[in-house]
Amino acid sequence: MLNPREINLSEARWLPGSASKHTVKGVKAAVSSDNAVVTYSLLQILEKGGTAVDAGIAGCLLQGVLEPYMTNLAGTVTALYYDAKTRQTVQLDSTSTFPSGLALHRPMPARPGAGWGAAPMASSIPGFAPGLKALHERYGSFSWSDLCEEAIWWADHGNHVSEFEREATMDMHAVFTYYPEAREYFKPNGRLVKIGERFPKPGLGDTLRGIAKEGPDYMIQGDWAKAYVAKANSLGWQINLAHMTENPPRWVEPYRFRVKDYEIACLALPQQQGQQQALILGILDQLHLEQYEPYSGEHLYYMAQALRIGNFHTGYMNDTVVANPDFDLFRDPAYHAYLARLIESNKPKVDLSEHMKLTVKPGPRGSLVSECFASDDRPKASCGSCEISIVDTYGNWLQIMNTIQGSGIAGAVVGGVPMGGSSAAANGFEGMQIKLVPGARTRLIMGHTLLFKNGQPVLMTGSPGNPSFSQAQMLTNLLFYKMDPYTAGYLPRMYGFINDTTILMEDRIRLETIQTLRKLGADLVVSEPWDSHTGSFQTCFLDENGALCTTVDPRRCGVADGLH
């Protein structure tokens, strides 16, 4: 097994789109993460007898050091966990929250011109430390000093910056340069750290040493929390220490539904992912998608329609502290059949190719630009996230995500922890939102999925990067087309229809597929061949012989490996 402290991050096998990424088979324990150092550090914990939860906690701490452009120690944590002893599956939701009795706080830059181009995101109460504390109290076994060990080392010594890290940091440049302390953090010599150079994280090692000594309470009520409150107050956000604990993490029963021969467990409300996947996959099942060739024009047309419906219909779903949502509606075959009928009956029966020639517009696509894309038809830069998939030697399965989204005060740095704020809308419909009522949590953050067959877990996968679109495509490839997990994640992904019939998709589409889409009145715009904004799945699974395997999505710098 590789030593994480000796890994050369510039090696080609760690780069997005690398052909050397593959599936590792026949292991005793498995880890798939977004970063090679994380994967091999967590395998060391598993080799020492740690549980999946021990490894997951250490991984979240370590990713907050190695990938501050994707996540940090003041962000959000969600998890889907199968406990081998009890055979129970539970969901942890520790997304960001908003303090009661206070209006949204959107900080202004410290000087004119700072953070040029940044749309200030709302300040929020971090869910990261409370979430890790809840996981550890219920399922952890290692001490906090052990769990923080690698993260402290990397914070003090710094990691070698990869090409992907520099590009992703540039995507978030406006937020990361909003305040002087963030500019100094990410541009220590007046510029971003060059590819191949070490990027130390000043002050972060001391915060981690506080966690190692006092546990996560150091960031919830201890010295870090007090410094966070003081920083907020200095910027005009009048929170107090009690706000840091008024919305504790929530344990939730996952959302379950059936597709083909599998029972599927996904995230339930306050996350809408489970109901969204049940609806999309149910519609595609009613349309008998498997009768069409994978990635044919018909496949992509029906997928784009189902994604649009799923995204819109589940916009109605509110947190259970706000409303009494109907959990059964989105897994009701009759509802699926009704929506499939809506799609099928309006499928063009004439060739619309000439219509598309006459109406297609070059450049930005109207509502698509405002919804999903920047002015040059690329996806908007979005806050990143990190996913980890772990199966330990005891048979426990953990899918966990941590993210910069919902992390504290946008552009501020407290105790070496840079933050990104929250883009959740208070009065939104589709997408990320939260209601400003006590106990409410942010909706539409994560996408974890666990597949069961005959009551046993057989596959676990999840992804950051627009999971409302990417998750259904991954599951379609697995369940309808029976692809192996690596191939299912490798194939190109789309964003689906929004308010017109344009599909934005990775540039690996056959000409005949594009021609068929145009006959159906659909336009296609391509992004780069490997678009990290379309997701990056981390997956563990059992093969047809029952052997434990793990694999990785090729779009980011992920690495999958196991104990042999």
Keywords:
single chain, 18 helices, six-stranded antiparallel beta sheet, 19 strands, alpha+beta, 564 residues
Number of strands: 19
CA-based shape: globular
Task: Kindly estimate the percentage of residues that lie in beta strands according to DSSP.
Answer: 15-25%
> Level of helix content?
25-40%
N-C termini distance:
9 Å
Strand order of the largest sheet: 6-3-2-10-9-1-19
Q: How can the largest sheet be summarized? A: 7 strands, antiparallel
In quaternary terms, these chains amount to single chain
Number of helices: 18
Q: What integer is the average pLDDT? A: 90
User: Uncertain spans, ≥5 residues at pLDDT below 50?
Assistant: 364-382
Derived structural class: alpha+beta
Radius of gyration: 22 Å
Describe the structure.
This protein is of the alpha+beta class. Helices cover 33% and strands 16% of the residues. The strands form five sheets. The protein has a seven-stranded antiparallel sheet, with helices on one face. Strands 7-8-13-14-17-18 form a six-stranded antiparallel sheet. The protein has a two-stranded antiparallel sheet with strand order 4-5. Strand 13 and strand 14 form a beta hairpin. The longest helix is centred in the middle third of the chain and has 17 residues. It is globular. About 3% of the residues have low confidence.
Could you give a quick summary of the protein structure above?
With 564 residues, the protein is α+β, with helices and mostly antiparallel strands.
